[in-house]
Amino acid sequence: MSDLSATPAARPFHVMVKPIGPICNLDCTYCYYLEKEKLFPRGEKFRMSPEVLEAYVRQYIGQQNAPEVTFAWQGGEPTLLGVEFFREAVALQKKYGQGKKISNALQTNGTLLDDEWCAFFKENGFLIGLSIDGPPKLHNTYRVDKGGRDTYEKVVAGLKLLKRHGVEFNTLTVANRVNTRHPVELYRFLKEIGSGFMQFIPLVERLPDEEAKSLGFDFAAPPQLDRGRLPVTEMSLEPKQYGEFLVQIFDEWVRNDVGSVYVQLFEVALGNWMGMGGGLCFFSETCGSALAMEHNGDVYSCDHYVYPQFKIGNVLNQSLGDMVEKPEQRQFGRNKKDSLPRYCRECEVRFACHGECPKHRFISTPEGEPGLNYLCAAYKRFSITWIPT
């Protein structure tokens, strides 16, 4: 195996790894990643090989010019791989650790957790991100299994196991058209189940264009790959609704929970308002240093851009550090700033969102210029809460 990890990258970078690709035991209605299975040949074995795993661990540690390295495992559902896969990953991290502090974060739907998993997480200091969309009536709307059955009870059973073993966890909630109608109820529910760190991920998915339909996709690719606005799915947020959702949760949080509950979006907004940066690519001026890696070692520009046009290499024959520094990847990151329409560039609160993710920039400004973010109205509404009166 050639040494591709000798020289650290010129800038910090992050990789979201899909060790089992898009394979999942659930069939969440809104999941954009399940259909990635169609990008691979029939009969593909969606399991990261030992060769790819070792190459990734060795490079990711060796090319980070920092004393601490965080691994992020996602899917699909990564626990389908079994505990032994992650035991091997931890062993490799120790082998190639170079004295650095190594940490692991794993995103799971929680339905397959048992005592063995939770004991492993606790022993190895894993941070677990648990996907849950609210109490039963909200969670079960879209988060169902392959038979269309509710999953709430299994998720909560997994949560109880995490608590019993003292595993550190946070919650990831997909903010969709249904649960955003109940902002305070949702927020209080997450507090009640013990979430001290909440992430709200806005659901914005467009219906497929003709090209996507021909490939069997249910959702459209990012706007760089098509020719204009497409209707969003019935599950997707409405901008005005999302703005009110954020404001109502913020009002509840700021009155009762500052310092005791961490809401990712609020902390990122505070960083931007203070001129310190928020540390989240969605709201950074540029991007391009948060890569996605599939089970076979293929690396893409971003988790939301796992399409052939955005593949930048493979860890078996190129180094991660070289890939993140490729001119086309650098340009991908600069495009986030350079492609902003004039309406955004002249906005008084541009610094707070920087046009958010390019994936969502598929509507036109009031003047008719393309490239405005679908959620612009939501973030403007939320920004009002930060302006002193």
Q: What is the count of DSSP helices, taking H or I runs of 4+ residues? A: 14
Strand order of the largest sheet: 7-6-5-4-3-2-1-8-9-10
Give the CA-based shape: globular
Distance between the termini: 62 Å
Q: What share of residues is helical?
A: 25-40%
Q: Which class do the helix and strand fractions yield?
A: alpha/beta
Evaluate the radius of gyration: 20 Å
The total beta strand count reads: 12
- Unreliably modeled segments: none
Helix-strand sequence: EHEHEHEHHEHEHHEHEEEHHHHEEH
Strand content: 5-15%
Major beta sheet, specifics? 10 strands, mixed
Mean pLDDT: 94
What does this protein look like?
The protein contains 14 helices and twelve strands. It has 389 residues and is an alpha/beta fold. Helix 3 links the parallel strand 3 and strand 4. Helix 8 (239-256) runs parallel beside helix 14 (376-384). The longest helix is centred in the middle third of the chain and has 18 residues, at 239-256. The N and C termini lie far apart (62 Å).
